[in-house]
């Protein structure tokens, strides 16, 4: 709750007029408690889990209209009923674990001093903090993910997430309840180390989930804007991790690829792509000679 009754009081405190964004924030948040504002995350996560995957569901239903060529594992096809079942499983976890976790974790937000007042952070501050959050989450998630692919971690916890060997958008948060709790730690570390404004925190939670949905989409679209982000893994990179499955010791990164490169856990993927490239080049030659066509064979190749 803001310690000002009017916009004039806020302007006097800051020694300047409020920006348009700050005026909107004042009008919305002035009489709302910090706890109420923090709990917006529950609504945001529900909307993201429910709405963001829908275009990809439509794409899956319209593969025959030309989208099939972008499917990373084209031999795998799920019905609408199967995808909806995945959504129901995710929502069950949301109601039983994610939502309650958000409700009880507010003291930690107060402890690290996520602020809700004025002035609002600048765009540069928001972008810089989000970059830090992504880097910290990616590094810590990498090591937790590697642990979860050990014998005990995989059999007891992580195997649930790998039930989808060809991931779909709804399956991004599909996991064992303990994995949901464990992977909340990397997401919290960034804001704990570099605390910012509640708006930045909202954006972080939203963008991290949207990114997870994108990397679990099962489609490698050439127009995806994330292609221009340096060291970004993307759907094709993470899809290989699911494709290899429980035996996978490759592509542990959640967002970027640098950890896998540094620690040598992307060798299987790089070999896989090299073989595919040779097959593609050979198929193009055969196709030109015989009038045939090349079909991307990702679903037929595995390399540990």
Automatic annotation (TrEMBL):
InterPro entries associated with the record: Fatty_acid_hydroxylase, Sterol_Desaturase_Related
Domain Fatty acid hydroxylase: 131-265
Family per record: Belongs to the sterol desaturase family.
Residue spans crossing the bilayer: 35-59
Acyltransferase as UniProt keyword: no
Hydrolase keyword on record: no
Descriptive protein name: Fatty acid hydroxylase domain-containing protein
Main location as per UniProt: membrane
Keywords annotated in UniProt: Membrane, Transmembrane, Transmembrane helix
């Amino acid at each position: 709750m803001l310690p000002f009754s009017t916009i004039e009081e806020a302007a006097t405190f800051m020694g300047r007029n409020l920006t348009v964004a700050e005026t909107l924030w004042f009008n919305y948040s002035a009489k709302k408690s910090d706890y109420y504002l923090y709990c917006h995350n529950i609504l945001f996560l529900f909307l993201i889990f429910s709405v963001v995957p829908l275009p990809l569901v439509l794409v899956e239903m319209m593969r025959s209209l030309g989208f099939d060529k972008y499917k990373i594992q084209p031999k795998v096809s799920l019905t609408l009923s199967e995808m909806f079942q995945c959504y129901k499983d995710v929502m069950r976890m949301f109601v039983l674990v994610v939502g309650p976790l958000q409700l009880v974790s507010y003291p930690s937000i107060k402890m690290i001093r996520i602020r809700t007042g004025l002035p609002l952070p600048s765009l540069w501050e928001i972008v810089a903090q989000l970059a830090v959050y992504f880097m910290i989450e990616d590094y810590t998630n990498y090591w937790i993910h590697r642990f979860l692919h050990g014998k005990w971690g995989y059999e007891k916890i992580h195997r649930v997430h790998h039930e989808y060997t060809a991931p779909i958008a709804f399956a991004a948060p599909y996991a064992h309840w303990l994995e949901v709790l464990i992977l909340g730690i990397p997401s919290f570390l960034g804001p704990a180390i570099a605390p910012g404004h509640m708006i930045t925190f909202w954006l972080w939670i939203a963008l991290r989930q949207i990114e997870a949905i994108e990397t679990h989409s099962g489609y490698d679209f050439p127009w995806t804007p994330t292609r221009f982000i340096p060291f970004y893994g993307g759907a094709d990179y993470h899809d290989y991790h699911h494709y290899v499955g429980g035996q996978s010791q490759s592509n542990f990164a959640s967002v970027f690829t640098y950890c896998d490169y540094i620690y040598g856990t992307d060798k299987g993927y790089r070999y896989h792509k090299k073989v595919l490239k040779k097959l593609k080049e050979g198929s193009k030659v055969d196709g030109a000679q015989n009038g045939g066509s090349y079909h991307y064979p990702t679903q037929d190749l595995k390399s540990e």
